[in-house]
Structures are given as C-alpha cells and as structure tokens.
Amino acid sequence: MSEPTPAVTAAVLVIGDEILSGRTKDKNIGSIAERLTEIGIDLREVRVVPDVTEEIVAAVNALRERYTYLFTTGGIGPTHDDITADSIAAAFGVGIGIDERARVMLLERHKPEDLNAARLRMARIPDGADLIPNPVSKAPGFSIGNVFVMAGVPQIMNAMLDAILPGLSQGVPVISETIEAGKLPEGSFAGGLATIAAAHGGVSIGSYPSMTQEGFANRIVVRGRDAGAVAAARVEIEALLAGLRR
After folding, report:
1. What is the reported pTM?
2. Cα-based distances in Å from 218 to 124, 189, 197
3. Cα torsion through 51, 21, 76, 70, rounded to 10
4. Which range is least confidently modeled, 104-113, 130-139, 211-220?
C-alpha cells in the first residue's frame, strides 16, 4: 500500500493598521484561498497584525515553521509605515539594503531623477531573497525561505501570485459537493449530519445557512480528496434530507 501524500499547507499573514481599523476591507484572503485550493494547497490559518515590527516578526516565525508556505500581504510600499521588508529580514536574521535588481525594475516605471529616497524604499530587499515580479507598478515583492511577501493592493497581489503559484509544490485538489437542504432547519438534520460526519472521517462536512428573498435556506457542503468518499457521504446526506421531507 502506498503512503498517503503529505498535505501541502499554507498560512496568510495580513499586515497593516488599516485592515485592523476597518478603514481598508481585505480582498486578498479569499482570492489566495481560492487559488490555493485549486492546486491542492490547504490554507490552514490567517492572521492580521498591525504595523509593528515585533508583531510581524513573531507571526512570521511562528507561521513559517508551522506550514509549508507563508504568504504575506501589505507593507512593502514607499512610506515610513511600510516596514514589512525590514521585519522579514529581522525574522530571518539577515541584512537588508537596496537590491540592484529591484532598482532596475523601478527604473522601468520611474525616471532616474524621480527615483527618490521614498521610492527606493521599495527596492530594499532582505539579503538572499528572490524577487517576485510586479507587472502592474514594477515595485517587486520577494521570497525568502518558504515566505512570499506580496503587495496589499489586490490587483498587484494577484499578479504576484500568478508568478508564484507555478513554482509551488502542489497537493491533491479538494473535491467539493453542495447539497441543497432548502428550508429544512439545521436543527432537524444536525444530529443525523453529525452521525454521517463521524462515519466518514476522510471528508469534511459543513452546514451553511444563508438568507434569501424567501427566508433562510441551508446548504450542506462535503469536501475531500477521495472522490469515492465524497460521493458516499453525499448519498447518505441526501437520504437523510429526503427522509426529513416526507
């Protein structure tokens, strides 16, 4: 019997006071989660930290040890509060300075005389890091170890992700099946659903209520990497719901 394929896991670290204050609404977590799921990488954890070096360093070091990959968003711009690059360097215990490769990238967008001290902050890269191209505004992200440092602007973040994903280890994609429970209240099928979930340890089963124009509606989602196991669980759930509708 072959050994099961180890799970490929990831975490996302969102960096920025503006997220925690509610002034900026994050649009990156869902995009990253969706795209990782497509290639079989399990997003296991998301954290949001302020623009505080100690907080960023602690989170980076915890998450990069725990998961296969860590993706960060935010804090790599030209202003004084963009401290992500310095914090990543501190987390890895390496130096940081103007990277000539990054400076050349910035010159694709800015005239040499316009490449002032503020803009050059975007060329400060931790020693030993690889650059992540940015076709939108040219200021690169970077990767070091298993950490990928990306911009917070969604358009730029997604462009950087396009460059990153092909080089990652991929897992077995998750199969997802949705069963419409309609207006059946969760309380009516919760016990039966728990029994089915216990009998199918290889799949994840969740119930998700939503509000529609007609009132509450419930959906049950079955997720797993084994098509047969997902199908078997679905059959039992459909039978449970059919019995409740009689």
Report:
1. 0.88
2. 50, 11, 17
3. 80
4. 211-220
Cβ contacts of residue 237 below 8 Å, gap of 6+? Answer: 179, 193, 196, 205, 220, 222
Q: Output the pLDDT for position 177.
A: 94
Using a pLDDT cut of 90, give the percent of the chain over it: 85
